[in-house]
Design a protein that fits this description.
Keywords: Repeat, WD repeat. By secondary structure, this protein is mostly beta strands. The protein contains one helix and 28 strands.
Length: 322
């Protein structure tokens, strides 16, 4: 690991002077999901208050651009098109998926689905959107025609869904600690990885195409070689179930968050700790910027004047300290 030592120290020093966060009140209740557009110019947040907020990044600050309204239930997860910076899709408890266009600031499609949706992913090639509901049904939508192409009912608890970077394999994490890998689009089972002793909660692919990582209820994050399907290392600094993970744009850093009062930032190739971010409440969503070392996140924060009320804020960390 000596070859990485210099880079590890470089990154640790960088974040000593870039450890400032900025907070933005986006919503009237809890923020469930944050994500950056592929060009890094916008940050979106989806909330229990049924709305989606879009901010623009102007050097070292965010400016609120628009609030999308239309969902009749909580917006539980959102994802941007991976090559088209204006298109965003959202999954809601109102049994629908919506696609929004930031250029015209409105919804361009509403796709009605069979149940309360909790997770969503857009294939990297932009052609399909998959959405999972509370009954473990995954619906595949053609992103161009907005028609439902397929529905797949799983007989286990589906926690998170994702395509690989080449859009030909579809991954699901489940309640038995496994990762199911299906070929796409025919959805034939290829592999089942026994990844964790506890529920496997989240999954994320690194931008370089080398690894994917899974976070689990056992408080561990494991890093997998995508070609060998072999576990390379395990990050063990958390004490609580890992709810959300994100790789940095260069694939060198992995952020993990849970009910621990820190967000952990580790060096992918060695597992070394690079930095951590102190938080005051459980964190349910983290997202690295697509070209900068800026991490967006949202916690279960309460209003400082009324502790019973959600703060509805999102934060961005990694700005230069004064």
């Amino acid at each position: 690991m000596k070859k990485y030592q210099e880079r590890i120290e470089e990154l640790q020093n960088y974040f000593k002077s870039h450890n400032k966060f900025k907070e933005y009140v986006a919503h009237t209740s809890k923020v469930h999901s944050v994500g950056w557009s592929c060009d890094g110019k916008r940050l979106a947040s989806g909330s229990f208050d049924k709305s989606v907020c879009v901010y623009t990044l102007d050097r070292d600050r965010l400016n609120k651009e628009h609030t999308f309204k239309g969902h009749g239930g909580s917006v539980d997860q959102l994802c941007w098109h991976q090559t088209h910076p204006d298109l965003l899709s959202t999954a809601s408890g109102d049994k629908s998926v919506r696609i929004w266009d930031t250029r015209i600031q409105k919804s361009v499609a509403t796709i009605n689905t069979k149940g309360e949706n909790i997770n969503i992913t857009w294939s990297p090639n932009g052609q399909a959107i998959a959405v999972g509901n509370k009954e473990d049904l995954v619906t595949f939508i053609d992103a161009r025609t907005h028609k439902i192409e397929a529905e797949e009912q799983f007989h286990f608890e589906v926690n998170e869904i994702s395509w690989n970077n080449t859009s030909d394999l579809f991954f699901l994490t489940n309640g038995q600690g496994c990762v199911h890998i299906l070929s796409y689009p025919d959805l034939k089972r290829q592999h089942i990885l026994k990844a964790h002793p506890g529920t496997c909660i989240c999954i994320e692919f690194d931008p370089t195409g080398k690894y994917f990582a899974t976070g689990s209820a056992d408080a561990l994050v494991s890093l997998w070689d995508i070609n060998e399907l072999a576990c390379q290392r395990v990050f063990t600094r958390m004490d609580w179930p890992v709810r959300t993970i994100s790789f940095s744009h260069d694939g060198q850093l992995l952020a993990s968050a849970s009910e621990d009062l820190i967000i952990d930032i580790g060096f992918v190739e060695s597992g070394d700790k690079i930095a951590d971010i102190s938080v005051e409440a459980a964190t349910f969503t983290v997202a690295w910027h697509p070209s900068l070392y800026l991490l967006a996140y949202a916690c279960d924060d309460k209003d400082s004047y009324d502790r019973k009320r959600d703060a509805g804020s999102l934060k961005v960390w990694g700005f230069q300290s004064d």
